[in-house]
Each structure stands twice: as C-alpha cells, then as structure tokens.
Amino acid sequence: MKFSKAFGQKYWELPQKYSELTQVERAEVRAQYTKLQNGLCLHCHAPLDREPAEKRGIDMRLFPRTMLSHPVHLHHCHKTDNTLGAVYALCNAVLWQYYGE
Asked: Is the pTM of this model over 0.90?
C-alpha cells in the first residue's frame, strides 16, 4: 500500500519508489516531506518558501533545460529509487553533480 488515510487525510508511507509515482503523487509526497522537514530544504536547511541561495559551480549543461522550472524537487536515491526529501532545484543539482545523488 502506498498510503494510508487517517482523519480523512492521505499520508504517504515514506520512503516511496520515485519511478513508480505519477507526477501528481510526486507532488503529494514532496508536500508531505516539506511538512515533515518543517518547510526546510533537506540539503541546505533554508526555508523552501523563499528564494534559494545562489549556488556557484553548477554546470547547467548537465541538466535538462527545465531543471529550474520547478523550484522545489523531490530528491531520491538513484541507486535504490527511494525518495529522500524535498530540496531546492539548485540543491538537487549540487547533490547530483557533486555527490552522485
């Protein structure tokens, strides 16, 4: 079962397999992680409802042109496919480029 319901609300069982989620489900899981993280980026711990700090040294040629279209991403492990948390798009780029995540 991907999620459970309590008091009329859907709660995702975390982590989820990223590749098995639809776009709508990814948005729901990202929102749940954001709430669990008290609205902070999992990587840099800055509030996700504000502009992220500028990240230097990112080679944007490595990423799709639409990478920064959505400011907050659902971060996941590329080895296990498990979701990890909500991060800024720029932090997601740093995690992939420098840490292979």
From this structure: no
